[in-house]
Fold:
Amino acid sequence: MERNIKQLVEQGLITLVLLVAGVIMYFVVGSVVDHWRWYALLLALWLTGILIHQISFHRKSLAVNQQRQALLHTVTNAAPVMIWTVDAREVVVDIFGRALENAAFKREDAVGRNIVFFDQEENDFYGHLRRALNGDRFVAFGNVGGRFYRHHFFPSGERKLNSQGFQCVSVDLTREAELDAQLKLSEQVFNNTTDAIMVMDHGRRVVKLNKAFTTITGFEERELLGKRNGPSWFNAQKLGFYKSIYNALNTVGAWRGEISAKRKSGEPFTGHLTLSLIRDETKEVSHYVAFFSDTSDLKRSQDELRYLANHDNLTNLPNRRLFLDRLEHAIKVSARTNSKLAIFFIDLDNFKLVNDSHGHAFGDEVLKEVGVRLKAAMRGSDTVARLAGDEFTVIAERVRDTIEVTAVARKLLQCFERPFEALGQTLHVSASVGIGIFPDDGENLVSLMKNADQAMYKAKAEGRNGFYYLSGEGVGNLPGGLFFPSELRLALKREQIEMAYQPIIDLKSGRVIGCEALLRWNHHCRGKVSPADFMPLAEEAGITEAIGQWTLDEACGQINEWRHLGIDMDFVSVNIASSQITDPHFLEMVAEAISKNDLDPTSLMLEVSENVALRHLERTTTFLQQARKLGMRCAIDDFGSSGNNYSYIRDLPIDTLKISRKASLTIANGPEQTRLLKALIGIGEVLGINVVAVGVERSQQEEVLRELGCGAAQGFLYAKPMSAESITDVLPDMDVRVIKNAS
Structure:
C-alpha cells in the first residue's frame, strides 16, 4: 500500500511539471502553433514522462525485490526453516529453505503439484493445508516426512472462488524435540534412581539434588541450594583424603571410594562416592556431580558376618579361628622386636559335673561370666578367647619376664575366687592354667600351643586351681617396694600412668583458682603407686623425658578441654623433676604442649620443690628465668621443709610459694607453733608472692590461715586428688562448697 501511494505521488509530480511546461510553451509559441498540435505535443510529453518513470520505478523495485529475496534466502539458509507458497488453485508454487536438506521429500517432488500430494502420507499436515486455504492465520505443530515442525500459516492476496492462497513458514524442531525427550528421560532417571545425586556449579555451590539424596541424608533441596560444598554430611577427614580427591579430579576427572558421612539427624553412615567434574566447550570446569549410595546395611551385614565368623556366639569372645590368627601375628611381632609373649590355656576344673548337676543353662551362664571376668582382668591390648567348651585362652604380648607372667597368671586365678551366681544358684568354680612363653616354650605357633596345653595338664595333675609353665623354674615374688625400669617403660605403653587433680582454693572468695596435677602409677600387681615411690627410679633410669612429655600433653590437653566446657580455672600446676631442670629441651616441650593446645602460657604453673632448688640453686634460677620469659607461672613447692635460711627466695623469679604440709599441720599444736607458718606467709607478703598452704585438712587450719593472710589453700578439707572427669562434674559453678559436698 505504501509503495502504491509513493508511485501515485511521483506520477502526479511529473504531470504537474509537464502542465507547467505546456503552459509556458503555449504563451511562448501559442500564437505560432495551432492548438491541436499543442495538445498533441503536451500529451506526448506526458506519456513519455510516465513511461520513463515506470521504467525507472520497475528497475528500483526489481533491485529491492532481489535484495529482499537474497536476505530471505540468507535467513532461511541460516535457520532450519522451510517457506511454502501455495496459490489459490491449491498448487504448491515454491518451497525453499535449509530445512529441505533433512526433509523426506525433494523440492521438485512437491513444487507444481496439488496439495493432495500430501494427503497420502501426511494426513495431519494436509489438514493444516486445507485449513489455510480457507484464509485462516494460525500456528500448528506436526510431522512432515519424519521431521517435527512448527508451522506458521498466513494468507496471501490471491483468491479464487472459495480458495485463498497462502504461505507457510515451517520451523524444524526435530532436534529440540529429541533434546526435550532426552531431558525428560534424564529427569526421570535423575529423580527415580536409588543413588543420591548432588550437582554443584564451578564454585561448588549446590544447584540440584535428587529425591534419593533427601531419602538418604534427610536434607531437602531448599535447605542446600546455593550452599558451598553442600551440607556437612562428610565426616571430618585427614587432609590427605581431600588431596587424593582433588588429584584424581585434576588427572582423570573423577574419584571413587568409600566415605564416612552423617545424616541431617547426626546419624553416621558409610557410603560409596563417585565424584566427577563436567567441562564446558572451553574445557573449563562448569559443574561437579557427586553420586553416592548408602552402604551402611551392606557393611553392617558384612561386619556381622565377619564378627560371627570370628567370635564365640555364647561369650562374644574371639573364637579359635581369630585366636590363632592373632597368635600368629603376635609371634611375628615378638620375633621381629625381640620381645616375649605369653599364652595362657585356662580349663575349668570338673566343669562336666557342673553341667550334669546344675544343668546346661546354668553352665552357659557360668561360661559367660568367666569370659567377662577374664576380659576385665586383662589389658585392652590382650586377647581373651574361648576355644571350645570350658577352655579359654589369653594372649599377653610384650611381657618382660617370668615374674610378670606369674603376676598375670595370679590375676587370672583371682577371677575364680568369687562364687558364680546364675538362675538362682551359687557355685564355686576353679580353673587350671597352663602357660607357654615365646620363644622359651616354642618358637612357632604349633610348638607354643602344644607346650601350653601340656603345662595346663601339669597344673591339673598338681592338684588343680593353679598354674604351671614348663620354663618357670626358680620363680619367686618380688619385695614390695622394688620396681624395675622396664616396668616403668611398659607402664607408659600400657597406659598404666594416670593423672589426678587436686583443687587449689582462694581463701577469700572460696573459688577454685587452679589444680595441681599429680601422677599415679596403676601397677598391675601393687595397685596405685605414688610418684615419690617411682620417680627416683625414673630419674636413675633416664625415663623422666618420656614421663614429662606425657604429663605435659595430658595436663595441657585437660586445660584445653575444661576451657571449652566453660570451666573458669586460672592454671594447672605440674611438678618438675631434678633432671628436667638441667634438660635443655624440656622447656621446648613445655612451649610445644602449650602451643599445640592453643593455651595462654599463664595457664601452666611449674613447681620446683625446695629440696631440688637448694641442691641446684644456680640451675634452678636459670630454669625459672627461662620459664618466666616464656610467660609461665613458677612456684617453689614444699616451702619451709628444709628449715634453712629462706633468703634464697629473693633471687628466684617466682610468683607462688606453696607452704609445706608439715608447716600447715603445726596449727593444731597451738599458737606458738604457728610462728613458723606466720613467718613463711610473711615472706610471701613482703616479696609480693602468692602463698598457697598445702595439707589443709580441718576447718581450724583454714580459719588460722585466713587470719594470717594466706591467700590460698589445698588439702583434703576441700577435696582429695580426683580424676579429670570428677573435677568436671563437681566444678560447674567453681564453688568450694560444691567440692566439699562431693568429697
Q: What stands out?
A: Residues 2-74 form one domain. The chain has five domains: 2-74, 79-177, 194-300, 313-469, 502-742.
